[in-house]
Specification:
By secondary structure, the protein is an alpha+beta fold. It contains 7 helices and 24 strands. The strands form 4 sheets. Strands 2, 3, 5, 8, 9, 11 and 12 form a 7-stranded antiparallel sheet that branches. The chain is elongated.
Length: 450
Amino acid sequence: MELVPSVVDTGGPRLALAAAEPWAPHARAAVVTARRDGAFAADANGTRTCAGGWQWRFEGIVPGRTYALTVEMRHQGLAAPRDMLRCVAAWGAPAANQDRYGTLWEYLLPSATGPDAWRFARTSVGPAGACQLTIRATLRWTAVGKTLWEMPRVAVAAAPLTARPPVRVCAVTGHSTQRQGRSFKTLADNLTFYGQLCEAACGRDHPQLIVLPEIALQWGVPGHPLDVAVPASGPEIEAFAELVRRHRVRIAVGMYERDSDAVYNSLILISPAGRVDGRYRKVHLASCGEDTSGLLPGDGFPVFETEVGRLGCNICMDGSAAESTRLVGLNGADLLLYSVMGDHRADRFSRGSPIFSEDRWRAIARTHAIDNQVCMAVARNGALGSGIVDRKGEWLVWNDGDLPFVTADVLLDDAYRVWNGSTFRDVAWYQRRPHLYGAFTDPGNFGSLR
């Protein structure tokens, strides 16, 4: 199921509280708890081992029903409230002296509602077998500070969450020998080549989303990028638009895109209606050539809301900077469209002609997907290594280089659980401590080069 934060009570029937009790993982870590003015106080105990708070149990959970969960709280004296506060929904009755939940669980997501006030909220679906829900609030990692928690609100949501259907995704590349013996002197040659492949893919697999390789429109065409670039509003993109209108498919086209006096290495998103409704411009231009060619880099990692989910993009060298995929994930993408010629990490580590390492490339793509909790559609110009990777880091389909295109059905709302009962996505995103990551954005930081 898709799990999204809820910021207001939906007005449905509320569940009554069955029990409220302090909790602590150890007597020496226990916070100072008290009932105060109808709310629940949890104050630091003066030691840095502080960890604990309150938990509230609700009975009568119905599996499969959608619930809106909300907890309001206020705090004083906390240096990093995003770091020091936690609120969890556990679908069972965890013991008040255990830090493990022993059941399925997920984080309630925080948002500041004032200078000293936070709301923790989530819209979630009762899992199979659940009949109880425990909401646990925690103060941790501080010797000072006070918190006051309101009674949680657990209400049946007005609108149920439903899992989105799988999306059929196709990486169209042409197999490794299809271009041999053919002349690619003009953009029209590439239009014909990829147009025929897309027609074949639509006729056989009926995809909802097609991803083409990097600069597919100009690949192999003689001339400098500044000379062969064309606008995304030109007849070349209209040719793809005509194709997608007929097949009701979305397509991402790699191209050198001219925009007035600038040229970009871009992925252009064309909707099933034949409109350009998104574009991504390569942020990290390839070293030793592209970065000094006159091409202009992009300046961000947009995520596009579409009929097939939230789409983000990377192009080739972008993948070498870990921040590229991370920002696509942080911006909320379901799918990462990755058009790529090669990757220096998946090549020989010595001088000479390139030698592609399939093993390293498989590992690189799997790591991108699982670390950033995005599914990936990979389209390599040479076909070999193209395919679809899911959030678990598994290759759903892989092109050995002898297939013109590969297709797979991708689950957007997988809700994969880790061994301790949480989901991959909860752990991947909520474990982060952003206030410690200043080095990421320090322009004077060159890592081990210094």
